[in-house]
């Protein structure tokens, strides 16, 4: 009798622990955890999970198990996003650092700043781009070579061409970030909008590429497919979105209560723009290296960096004689 009661107590305790862990796990949706993990982890740490490059959720583990090539694609997307960001913002006040002004408490993911919105869009865009390219290269087995003839063999790709499957990349990105369980509050809506803006920035870069077939250089048959340019093209669009991002008024800053339909309708406006909720902290410090985690103050002559200074340089013009060519010396006025 005592043994059965202890077993029942153990089962009840394990059930309670499981429920509490699910509540804690659910407090931060997969979408947020995934983006933060991919962009924050600058190391080459390999995790024992199926996706390897991040601590994956059960859903993400299933997705990675279905296509073994996806883990390498995720690594490509991660490095592509970080390197593109650092290259595009190397002369700006914010240089893709994870904290503002070297202050750990001012982590970029603590709130939804303009920069946070950009990172969510950038990482999602890089993932969809890498997956679409992976379909064309053959590194992913669950997607096909878009608009090619016959089977997916390298020989036929050279003959007929192979399109980048952006639709599959978009679908995998949404599924991998678990859109359905991202939440229904303003924070979730804001981050989901930023992710979609990033993905659509890649889709806008799709271009039709054609190849002629025929005798003696004639174009009796023409094969066309869709091809994505290098990721830098989408990066240019995203940086414009960053500079034109829209700040939304916080109407319900909570992760548990759903907002009203009236407020949701107002939030759905400007769906094509990046949106954020909090103003970026002042990035201009008086110290020598207070604006950027990696020390943006590198002595460059970039005007953008000069704008980040919170001090003014005094240029002293000394009075001296100015010698004009072919004329006598004239005193400098003043």
Automatic annotation (TrEMBL):
Keyword annotations for this protein, in alphabetical order, are:
Developmental protein, Disulfide bond, Extracellular matrix, Secreted, Signal, Wnt signaling pathway
Family the entry assigns: Belongs to the Wnt family.
Could you tell me what this protein is called? Protein Wnt
The cross-references to SMART domains, in alphabetical order and at most eight, read: WNT1
Q: Signal peptide position in this chain?
A: 1-21
Q: What is the species listed in this Swiss-Prot or TrEMBL entry? A: Plutella xylostella (Diamondback moth)
Do you know which Pfam families this protein is assigned to? Answer: wnt (PF00110)
Single GO biological process annotation from the record: cell fate commitment
For this record, the Gene Ontology CC terms, alphabetical, are: extracellular space
Tell me if Manganese is a UniProt keyword of this record: no
What does the record give as the function of this protein?
Answer: Ligand for members of the frizzled family of seven transmembrane receptors.
Subcellular location, record wording = Secreted, Extracellular space, Extracellular matrix
Quote one Gene Ontology molecular function term: frizzled binding
The organism that produces this protein has a lineage beginning with:
Eukaryota, Metazoa, Ecdysozoa, Arthropoda, Hexapoda
Q: What is its main location?
A: secreted
């Amino acid at each position: 009798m005592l043994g059965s009661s202890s077993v029942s107590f153990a089962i009840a305790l394990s059930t309670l622990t499981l429920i509490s862990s699910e509540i804690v796990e659910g407090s931060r949706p997969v979408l947020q955890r995934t983006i933060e993990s991919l962009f924050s982890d600058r190391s080459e740490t390999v995790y024992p999970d199926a996706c390897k490059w991040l601590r994956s959720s059960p859903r993400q583990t299933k997705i990675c198990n279905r296509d073994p090539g996806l883990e390498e694609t995720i690594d490509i997307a991660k490095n592509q996003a970080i390197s593109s960001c650092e290259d595009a913002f190397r002369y700006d006040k914010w240089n893709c650092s994870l904290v503002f002004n070297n202050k750990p408490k001012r982590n970029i993911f603590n709130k939804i700043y303009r920069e946070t919105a950009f990172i969510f869009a950038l990482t999602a865009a890089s993932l969809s781009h890498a997956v679409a390219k992976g379909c064309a290269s053959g590194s992913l087995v669950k997607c096909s070579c878009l608009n090619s003839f016959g089977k997916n063999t390298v020989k036929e790709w050279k003959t007929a061409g192979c399109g980048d499957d952006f639709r599959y990349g978009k679908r995998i990105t949404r599924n991998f970030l678990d859109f359905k369980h991202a939440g229904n509050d303003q924070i979730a809506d804001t981050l989901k909008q930023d992710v979609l803006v990033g993905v659509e920035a890649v889709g806008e870069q799709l271009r039709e590429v054609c190849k002629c077939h025929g005798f003696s250089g004639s174009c009796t048959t023409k094969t066309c497919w869709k091809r994505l340019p290098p990721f830098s093209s989408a990066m240019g669009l995203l940086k414009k979105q960053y500079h034109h991002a829209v700040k939304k008024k916080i109407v319900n800053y909570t992760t548990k209560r759903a907002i009203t339909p009236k407020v949701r309708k107002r939030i759905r406006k400007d769906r094509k723009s990046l949106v954020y909720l909090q103003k970026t902290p002042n990035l201009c410090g008086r110290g020598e290296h207070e604006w950027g985690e990696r020390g943006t103050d590198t002595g460059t002559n970039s005007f953008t960096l000069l704008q980040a200074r919170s001090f003014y340089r005094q240029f002293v013009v000394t009075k001296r004689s100015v010698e004009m060519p072919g004329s006598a010396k004239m005193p400098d006025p003043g």
